[in-house]
Amino acid sequence: MPSAPKWLFDVVERLLLPNVPLMKVSMSEYLSPSIKKIQFKGTFDSLQFQVGSYLDFRVSDTEARRYTVSYIDPQKETLEFIVHLHGKGQGRQFMEDLKVGDKVVVSAPRAHKCYEKSFKKYLIFGDETSLALACAFLPVLINNHHQFHFYFELAQVNQHVPKLLGIPNYTVFAKDGSFLNENWISNLPIFQGPTSNDTTFVLTGNAKSVQAFKKVIKNSTKAKIFSHGYWLEGKKGL
Questions:
Q1: Concatenated DSSP letters for 83-115?
Q2: What 3-state class would DSSP assign to 144?
Q3: What confidence tens digit (pLDDT) does each residue in 1-49 have?
Q4: What are the residue boundaries of the FAD-binding FR-type domain, all occurrences included (predicted)?
Protein backbone atom coordinates (compact mmCIF):
# COMPACT_ATOMS: atom_id res chain seq x y z
CA MET A 1 0.00 0.00 0.00
CA PRO A 2 2.44 2.74 -1.12
CA SER A 3 -0.39 5.28 -1.40
CA ALA A 4 -3.75 5.50 0.35
CA PRO A 5 -6.16 8.14 1.65
CA LYS A 6 -5.08 9.85 4.84
CA TRP A 7 -8.02 8.45 6.80
CA LEU A 8 -7.00 4.88 5.95
CA PHE A 9 -3.42 5.40 7.13
CA ASP A 10 -4.77 7.03 10.30
CA VAL A 11 -7.00 4.01 10.99
CA VAL A 12 -4.11 1.58 10.38
CA GLU A 13 -1.84 3.47 12.78
CA ARG A 14 -4.54 3.74 15.44
CA LEU A 15 -5.81 0.16 15.30
CA LEU A 16 -2.87 -1.94 14.07
CA LEU A 17 0.32 -0.22 15.21
CA PRO A 18 -0.07 0.51 18.97
CA ASN A 19 2.03 -2.56 19.86
CA VAL A 20 4.96 -1.51 17.66
CA PRO A 21 7.46 0.50 19.73
CA LEU A 22 8.09 4.12 18.84
CA MET A 23 11.55 4.40 17.29
CA LYS A 24 13.91 7.31 17.98
CA VAL A 25 16.78 8.26 15.65
CA SER A 26 20.04 7.82 17.56
CA MET A 27 22.53 8.15 14.67
CA SER A 28 22.44 9.41 11.10
CA GLU A 29 25.36 9.55 8.69
CA TYR A 30 25.97 9.75 4.96
CA LEU A 31 28.10 7.01 3.41
CA SER A 32 27.88 8.82 0.07
CA PRO A 33 25.79 11.72 -1.25
CA SER A 34 22.93 9.29 -1.91
CA ILE A 35 23.34 6.58 0.74
CA LYS A 36 22.46 7.22 4.37
CA LYS A 37 22.90 4.98 7.40
CA ILE A 38 20.23 5.55 10.04
CA GLN A 39 20.18 3.99 13.51
CA PHE A 40 17.12 3.86 15.74
CA LYS A 41 16.70 3.10 19.43
CA GLY A 42 13.65 1.37 20.82
CA THR A 43 12.37 -1.74 22.58
CA PHE A 44 12.51 -4.44 19.91
CA ASP A 45 12.77 -7.66 21.95
CA SER A 46 9.10 -8.54 21.38
CA LEU A 47 9.42 -8.32 17.59
CA GLN A 48 10.49 -11.12 15.26
CA PHE A 49 13.21 -10.35 12.69
CA GLN A 50 14.91 -12.51 10.07
CA VAL A 51 17.11 -11.93 7.02
CA GLY A 52 15.05 -9.83 4.64
CA SER A 53 12.82 -8.24 7.28
CA TYR A 54 11.44 -4.84 6.37
CA LEU A 55 9.41 -2.07 7.96
CA ASP A 56 6.90 0.26 6.34
CA PHE A 57 7.44 3.95 7.11
CA ARG A 58 4.65 6.46 6.69
CA VAL A 59 6.54 9.12 4.78
CA SER A 60 3.61 11.53 4.34
CA ASP A 61 -0.09 11.73 5.20
CA THR A 62 -0.95 9.59 2.18
CA GLU A 63 2.18 7.54 1.34
CA ALA A 64 4.27 4.75 2.86
CA ARG A 65 7.62 3.31 1.82
CA ARG A 66 9.27 0.00 2.63
CA TYR A 67 12.87 -0.30 3.91
CA THR A 68 14.91 -3.42 4.67
CA VAL A 69 16.47 -3.79 8.11
CA SER A 70 20.27 -3.95 7.83
CA TYR A 71 21.03 -4.72 11.50
CA ILE A 72 19.12 -5.53 14.68
CA ASP A 73 20.36 -5.93 18.25
CA PRO A 74 17.39 -6.29 20.65
CA GLN A 75 19.67 -6.34 23.72
CA LYS A 76 21.17 -2.98 22.80
CA GLU A 77 17.76 -1.78 21.56
CA THR A 78 19.31 -0.90 18.20
CA LEU A 79 17.87 -1.09 14.70
CA GLU A 80 19.66 0.12 11.55
CA PHE A 81 18.85 0.83 7.91
CA ILE A 82 21.01 1.59 4.88
CA VAL A 83 18.84 3.92 2.79
CA HIS A 84 19.26 4.90 -0.87
CA LEU A 85 18.18 8.50 -1.44
CA HIS A 86 16.90 8.30 -5.01
CA GLY A 87 14.72 10.59 -7.08
CA LYS A 88 12.65 13.42 -5.63
CA GLY A 89 9.79 11.53 -4.02
CA GLN A 90 8.31 11.50 -0.54
CA GLY A 91 10.46 8.56 0.59
CA ARG A 92 13.68 10.34 -0.21
CA GLN A 93 12.54 13.56 1.44
CA PHE A 94 11.42 11.76 4.59
CA MET A 95 14.66 9.82 5.03
CA GLU A 96 16.83 12.79 4.10
CA ASP A 97 15.11 14.96 6.71
CA LEU A 98 15.45 12.45 9.57
CA LYS A 99 17.84 13.66 12.27
CA VAL A 100 18.96 12.52 15.69
CA GLY A 101 16.11 12.79 18.17
CA ASP A 102 13.28 12.38 15.65
CA LYS A 103 10.64 9.80 16.53
CA VAL A 104 8.77 7.67 14.00
CA VAL A 105 5.96 5.13 13.98
CA VAL A 106 6.38 2.06 11.78
CA SER A 107 4.62 -1.17 10.88
CA ALA A 108 5.45 -4.52 12.47
CA PRO A 109 8.36 -6.28 10.70
CA ARG A 110 7.60 -8.59 7.81
CA ALA A 111 9.97 -10.42 5.49
CA HIS A 112 10.46 -11.72 1.97
CA LYS A 113 11.84 -15.26 2.19
CA CYS A 114 15.41 -15.16 0.87
CA TYR A 115 17.46 -17.46 3.09
CA GLU A 116 17.58 -21.19 3.74
CA LYS A 117 20.24 -22.56 6.08
CA SER A 118 20.53 -25.87 4.22
CA PHE A 119 21.79 -24.19 1.02
CA LYS A 120 25.58 -23.98 1.16
CA LYS A 121 26.50 -21.49 -1.57
CA TYR A 122 25.02 -18.05 -2.13
CA LEU A 123 25.36 -15.42 -4.86
CA ILE A 124 23.60 -12.25 -3.75
CA PHE A 125 22.89 -9.58 -6.36
CA GLY A 126 21.53 -6.06 -6.07
CA ASP A 127 22.12 -2.33 -6.27
CA GLU A 128 22.11 0.54 -3.78
CA THR A 129 18.68 -0.49 -2.52
CA SER A 130 20.09 -3.95 -1.71
CA LEU A 131 22.93 -2.88 0.57
CA ALA A 132 20.79 -3.21 3.68
CA LEU A 133 19.91 -6.78 2.75
CA ALA A 134 23.60 -7.55 2.14
CA CYS A 135 24.42 -6.29 5.65
CA ALA A 136 21.62 -8.39 7.12
CA PHE A 137 22.84 -11.48 5.26
CA LEU A 138 26.51 -11.16 6.16
CA PRO A 139 26.57 -12.36 9.80
CA VAL A 140 24.24 -15.26 8.97
CA LEU A 141 26.41 -16.35 6.05
CA ILE A 142 29.56 -16.21 8.18
CA ASN A 143 28.10 -17.81 11.31
CA ASN A 144 26.54 -20.68 9.35
CA HIS A 145 29.71 -21.27 7.29
CA HIS A 146 28.24 -20.62 3.84
CA GLN A 147 30.28 -19.93 0.73
CA PHE A 148 29.12 -16.60 -0.62
CA HIS A 149 29.78 -13.75 -3.01
CA PHE A 150 28.03 -10.44 -3.60
CA TYR A 151 27.43 -8.80 -6.98
CA PHE A 152 26.56 -5.10 -6.78
CA GLU A 153 25.62 -2.80 -9.67
CA LEU A 154 26.39 0.66 -8.29
CA ALA A 155 26.73 4.21 -9.53
CA GLN A 156 30.33 5.42 -9.57
CA VAL A 157 29.80 7.65 -6.54
CA ASN A 158 28.63 4.64 -4.48
CA GLN A 159 31.16 2.00 -5.45
CA HIS A 160 33.18 2.46 -2.24
CA VAL A 161 30.19 1.86 0.05
CA PRO A 162 30.41 -1.98 0.35
CA LYS A 163 33.95 -1.57 1.71
CA LEU A 164 32.74 1.08 4.19
CA LEU A 165 30.10 -1.36 5.38
CA GLY A 166 32.70 -4.10 5.91
CA ILE A 167 31.24 -6.41 3.27
CA PRO A 168 33.78 -9.00 2.02
CA ASN A 169 33.74 -11.18 -1.11
CA TYR A 170 32.06 -8.73 -3.45
CA THR A 171 32.37 -7.56 -7.03
CA VAL A 172 31.15 -4.12 -8.10
CA PHE A 173 29.80 -3.54 -11.60
CA ALA A 174 29.10 -0.18 -13.20
CA LYS A 175 25.47 0.86 -13.18
CA ASP A 176 25.35 1.17 -16.96
CA GLY A 177 22.50 -1.13 -17.94
CA SER A 178 24.64 -4.23 -18.40
CA PHE A 179 22.36 -6.25 -16.13
CA LEU A 180 19.52 -5.66 -18.56
CA ASN A 181 21.47 -7.55 -21.24
CA GLU A 182 20.92 -11.30 -20.98
CA ASN A 183 23.88 -12.15 -23.23
CA TRP A 184 26.19 -10.05 -21.06
CA ILE A 185 24.83 -11.65 -17.87
CA SER A 186 25.37 -15.16 -19.28
CA ASN A 187 29.10 -14.40 -19.58
CA LEU A 188 29.54 -13.54 -15.92
CA PRO A 189 32.12 -15.68 -14.04
CA ILE A 190 29.42 -17.42 -12.01
CA PHE A 191 28.14 -19.11 -15.17
CA GLN A 192 31.55 -20.23 -16.46
CA GLY A 193 31.51 -23.67 -14.88
CA PRO A 194 29.31 -26.19 -13.11
CA THR A 195 29.28 -24.42 -9.75
CA SER A 196 26.25 -22.31 -10.66
CA ASN A 197 24.01 -25.39 -10.37
CA ASP A 198 24.58 -25.69 -6.62
CA THR A 199 24.59 -21.95 -5.96
CA THR A 200 21.53 -20.24 -4.48
CA PHE A 201 20.84 -16.88 -6.11
CA VAL A 202 19.28 -13.97 -4.22
CA LEU A 203 18.25 -11.21 -6.63
CA THR A 204 16.98 -7.80 -5.51
CA GLY A 205 17.14 -4.16 -6.57
CA ASN A 206 16.06 -2.94 -10.01
CA ALA A 207 13.10 -5.10 -11.06
CA LYS A 208 14.24 -5.17 -14.70
CA SER A 209 17.76 -6.29 -13.75
CA VAL A 210 16.28 -8.94 -11.47
CA GLN A 211 14.04 -10.19 -14.28
CA ALA A 212 16.90 -10.44 -16.80
CA PHE A 213 19.28 -12.13 -14.33
CA LYS A 214 16.58 -14.59 -13.26
CA LYS A 215 15.85 -15.53 -16.87
CA VAL A 216 19.53 -16.34 -17.51
CA ILE A 217 19.74 -18.46 -14.37
CA LYS A 218 16.63 -20.43 -15.30
CA ASN A 219 17.85 -20.98 -18.86
CA SER A 220 21.34 -22.14 -17.94
CA THR A 221 21.19 -23.75 -14.48
CA LYS A 222 19.04 -25.72 -12.08
CA ALA A 223 19.84 -23.35 -9.24
CA LYS A 224 17.49 -22.17 -6.52
CA ILE A 225 16.41 -18.53 -6.87
CA PHE A 226 15.01 -16.04 -4.37
CA SER A 227 14.04 -12.81 -6.12
CA HIS A 228 12.25 -9.57 -5.37
CA GLY A 229 12.41 -6.35 -7.35
CA TYR A 230 12.68 -3.42 -4.94
CA TRP A 231 11.98 -0.71 -7.48
CA LEU A 232 10.96 -0.09 -11.08
CA GLU A 233 11.55 3.12 -12.99
CA GLY A 234 8.33 5.10 -13.15
CA LYS A 235 6.50 3.00 -10.55
CA LYS A 236 5.85 4.43 -7.11
CA GLY A 237 6.47 2.41 -3.96
CA LEU A 238 7.15 -1.01 -5.51
A1: EE--TTSHHHHHHHH--TT-EE-BPPPEE----
A2: coil
A3: 466 667 566 666 666 655 567 899 999 999 999 999 999 998 888 888 8
A4: 18-116
Phi then psi for residue 211, to 5 deg, are -65, -45
- Which ranges in the chain belong to alpha helices (H)? 6-16, 90-97, 131-143, 161-164, 182-186, 207-220
CATH for 121-227 is 3.40.50
CB 24 within 8 A of CB 43: no
User: Which of left, alpha, beta for 23 (phi over 0: left; psi -120 to 50: alpha)?
Assistant: beta
Q: 191 near 162, Cβ under 8 Å?
A: no
Phi, psi at residue 169, to the nearest 5°?
55, 55
Which CATH number, 3.30.470.30, 2.40.30.10, 1.20.1080.10, 3.20.20.70, labels domain 6-111?
A: 2.40.30.10
The model's pTM is 0.92
Tell me the β-bridge partners of 30: 36
Quote the pLDDT of residue 8: 67
